[in-house]
Structure formats: structure tokens, C-alpha cells
Amino acid sequence: MRLTEIDHFSHPHRLHLESTEAPYRCDGCKEEGFGRCYQCPYEDCNFHLHEECGNASLSISHPYLKTCNLKFHQKNPTSKDRYCDACGMDINGFVYQCSHKDAHDLHPCCAKLPKALSNNGVEIYLSKEVRSKCLRCERKVIANGVKGWSYVSSCGKYCYHVACVREAILEDWRRGSNGLELQNISSSREVVVPSGESSWRKNARKLWLIVKLAVSVIFGDPVTLIASLIQALSSN
Fold it and tell me: For 101-147, how does the pLDDT look when each residue is reduced to its tens digit (9 = 90+)?
């Protein structure tokens, strides 16, 4: 059941689940967020938490990290720089981390990335193994030498880094589209069709929209963004 109000250890005031019109920076994981989040009703506080950060569990398991018990920490518990296994971004706040020597880290929102999505015959699967070069950055490894997780087409030939899709969604906001003008995404540079695959162009656009829909959960609960992506998919 969704909690509309919470008391949270990270803030002295009661937090309310409300929609935001502008992007915000989560005061838990320190990453960007859109849409519904927990907010302090006192404007001077300007305090926000992703819903996942506000309701983080003491520990979680993840099907892609089967041997790990990922414990919640308010900040990186080590003295070394850490990066989220899924999105590749720095760990600057709330994190789930295991106790293994080669520890794994996940932002609370990244831990909720959907394992699979499909639409009209186009299917994608979340993979921690990079099978081929990302269609957006044309590399297998993202920044800092981190492989990052990817969404891969059912045929296994086409993939996008979660990190690259995350950055593309943020670019939509920076360009002033607020993530809503996605119906024209087929003309953007993110939809790359490998040589000899021109017949796949229509499915490439659909794949990109589905991947954006999956990765949007990283930003919390971006209802408007999700709605626009579903509308764009239904028009294909």
C-alpha cells in the first residue's frame, strides 16, 4: 500500500507524497527525480525523497546478484569511491551494498528497474552482462570503467546502457521538452540502426521508447513521462 505521509530519519518534519512540476534532487540518494516524491511541506526546507528512498528496506536481495544480501546504508560505508552497478553513477547517498570483498552497489531506485518489458512483439530484457556495444554511445563500457547494466532486445543483437538512457531522458529536460515531446524521438541520434539493418528502423524506434519507459523508474515516479511514452508506443 502506498504511504502518502511518512516520518523519516533523514528529516525532522513529516513528509508528504506529492507531485512536482520540475525535476528535483533527492536528498537521500542525491540523484535526480521527476514526478511524485516525498516532500517537506515547509518551503524553506526544500527537501525531497524518491518514494523508493523514503521507503527503503533494511536489506534486499536482487535476482541478478543472487549471492548478495544488500544492506541499506545512508552513505557509502567505505573510504573508496563507489558506483552503482546498474546506472554507473557515483554513490553519494542512500545505497544498498553487499559485504563481499568485491562489493555490489545499487541506488534504491535502480534496484527497482523492471527485468523485462514488451510491446507489440518488441521485447527487452535487463542484463548485467554487456553482450554488444550500446547503440547510443557505441561502447561496451561506460564512464569510470564501469560496465553498467543494459537493456537488450530479445534477439540479443541490440542494447542500450541504462546509464545512456538515463542521460538521454535528462537531455530531454535540458532541451526544455520536459520529457514530453517523445513522439518525435525517431529523428534523434539515439535511434541508431546498425549497417545492413535498415528494415529494423521502425522496431528501433519502438525499442528506444520501451527502454526509456523501463529506465524512467530511476527518477522515482515520473507519471507524466511514463504516460507520454505509453502514448508514443500506442501510436506506433
Answer: 889 999 999 999 999 988 777 788 999 887 788 888 888 888 667 78
The amino acid occupying position 68 is C
CA gap 185, 24 in Å, rounded: 24
Least confident of 142-156, 178-192, 222-236: 178-192
Q: Is the dihedral of CA 170, 59, 19, 216 positive or negative?
A: positive
Sheet containing strand 220-221, strands side by side: 24-25, 32-35, 220-221
Helix, coil or strand: residue 73: strand
Gap between the Cα atoms of 110 and 37, Å rounded? 16
The strand pairing partners of 229, in sequence order, are none
For the chain, report the end-to-end CA distance as a whole number of angstroms.
34
**Phi, psi (degrees; rounded to nearest 5) at 42:** -90, 115
pTM value surpassing 0.90: no
Give the span between the Cα atoms of 46 and 39, in whole angstroms.
8
For residues 58 and 70, is the Cβ–Cβ distance under 8 A? no
- Lookup: cell for 176: 526544455
Assess whether pLDDT exceeds 50 at residue 184.
Answer: no
Q: 114, 113, 107, 115: which is closest to 53 by C-alpha?
A: 107
Instruction: State the DSSP string of 102-170.
Output: T--EE-TTGGG--SEEEETTEEEEEESS--S-BTTT--SS-GGG----EEEETTSS-EEEHHHHHHHHH
C-alpha cell at 127: 542484463
